[in-house]
């Protein structure tokens, strides 16, 4: 028997929509083996994960809380990816967005009228991330420096800068040595909904997804971005200003990650502290690729991953499985979905052994 | 020529019977019979999309037929992959070479072959060099691919096949990328392979080449065999040779003569003065070129590929900086008048289109300025124009949502031409506009260029003498980046010197 992959001449019909469910099923089977090995009933474990994530409105609200920064970071990476720019720096841009917004909340809010504090703080978050994104953008556009390396390295710079601030000059003097800034004034807290922790950041993320989709599909500029991503030489041939668009895309991409940062800071933590740089920027890369750079899919994938994180936390407590199981399951799902996407472009052929 | 007699002891090299191949949108082969004798150069002639490449990809194992049988040296075979076909001595050289640029010739040749883990490169290089000498390929087995010209790279592909003991060699439009001199060299090599007993299938749609090189010709049209003939038989009918074959290919009379009137206008549209441009490696690829083009004129730049034409055009359209000199379009510096130029580039998939985007979005590439309303794109309006252009230029596109990469070369070229014509430019730059097109499509493009010159000036960059003589009012012959001469096509006496000029020889007075 020989197994070969053959490139599809025509794209798959409606069955392509089954690829992701089938991939998740495959990952679930893999996970089931693991649960059995741990002496846990897989059916019960999955029920528990599902209930933990989607069982009650409150549980689901926690999923949305987890998904919010993933949506914004996924869009950040996905938008740049549309132009074939690989922004690995969403993590650092997220941090810089948090820092810039926190600066407004901590030092400017007492001088500002109440209603404008939050908008100004959010704008500052966007600009903080945008500034951090523009650095690799400028280096790429003007000097052809590889953005993968520069954006990645700037993550470490941003995180060290963040730590310097909350360990040093911005540390809360009343914090009894606890590393972190003082708590933001109430006027800089993002509104939450229905008594849950779901905050305005979710709406910002959804609005950004719709806006990006509209811009890419229906505007001339969005078209230029897509052409540049698909064939750079053709873009130059068509007199598209690639340099200028690179700067704009990195500015917006960084800004989106920056929004994730300020929304986490002002929506959940209410201060700058250690929990800001927890890898949402990196998960955003995975989200963007699993969502094939499509804004709508990025939102769905973010919610799915958020659900897995919340449900994974639940079984860790209720069924006493190691905390790593949630990460292993995440890994299995990513692996299967990425592997499953091969079937969108290729078909599997199993041929009898050569005579 | 050696005659091969067919007998049970000496069967033909290949027999293909009743080959059928269906693709989702088209039936590429509808019951094709094909026979290739040993020691024969067999031309497969047909328009774009006639099914030539498909038939040969079946023979070389890239595709599996939906029906039909294949016999190699009298033995029934079923190929599941190119590897199976190679094992029977059948190899195909594609239009796009499959070589690793950073590897040496020898490394490329042994790539994918089984052998010992430790390679003795010295011995292998010697073997490759010997094989190269035997067939007169003159290839340095230690050279890296990027150092070689296109013609040499093609010879490496031939060498790779010969090294794998291929005796049935299929070449898919091998002459499309070659200069006239390189074509002659290729023909010498093909005859040499025939002398050694090998068989060659030569896929092409250039009639003169077919008549020159083939022992046999099979004409395909719309997936069916129209005729199988010897060129000598065609020649017997007097001067009707090319026309005869052309008629079989396209099924209608094709007139290769293009009627044209001399230009009427005196308004100078484009002036190029002392233009110098650097090439990719920093060398001066264009040196002090000066010429001017009138409104309504077709001005040809003729030369063997690689003599600075590409750099010249790229400098004109703003894709490459000028080193020196001045270019004025309609009295204005060309850098500020780029939107008045339409450019049909030679590199259709790399520069002129986005293969992974739908047909409609490929129309938008240079027309997007006219179809924007504020920041928004007027896709509906563009769709109407695209549909009109598709029917006007008879582009075979089943759907505007189809990816451009699914179009055949000829249809993609028509799309680009239609799009650039639709810009109603002041200056049209057409680079090798008919390269790789069949006769029918070539003639349509020529007629269209002649119609268009009523409204603009056309700079035609071509290596095809016939194209240039049929269309141009004036011909600039370029050699190593320099102007050899500018000749009016009215001046028949001077036209005879074009050949030597293209080769860099100025006649001594």
Summary tags:
heterodimer; A: 355 residues; mainly alpha; two-stranded antiparallel sheet; B: 509 residues; alpha/beta; Rossmann fold; six-stranded mixed beta sheet; 17 helices; 25% strand; globular
Give the topology.
The complex is a heterodimer of chains A (355) and B (509).
Chain A: E1 2-7, H1 19-37, H2 42-54, H3 57-82, H4 90-108, H5 114-143, H6 147-167, H7 200-218, H8 220-230, H9 232-237, H10 242-269, H11 280-290, H12 295-318, H13 324-340, H14 342-345, E2 346-351
Antiparallel strand pairs in A: 1-2
Chain B: E1 14-22, E2 27-36, E3 41-45, H1 52-59, E4 67-72, E5 75-77, H2 82-87, E6 90-93, H3 105-110, H4 121-134, H5 150-163, E7 168-172, H6 180-195, E8 199-204, H7 207-213, E9 216-221, E10 224-229, H8 231-236, H9 241-250, E11 268-278, E12 284-294, E13 298-302, H10 309-316, E14 324-329, E15 332-333, E16 341-344, H11 359-367, E17 372-373, E18 376-377, H12 379-392, H13 409-421, E19 427-431, H14 439-452, E20 457-462, H15 465-471, E21 474-479, E22 482-488, H16 492-495, H17 498-502
Parallel strand pairs in B: 3-8, 3-9, 6-7, 7-8, 13-20, 13-21, 16-19, 19-20
Antiparallel strand pairs in B: 1-2, 1-4, 4-5, 9-10, 11-12, 11-14, 14-15, 17-18, 21-22
Helix pairs in contact in B: 11-13
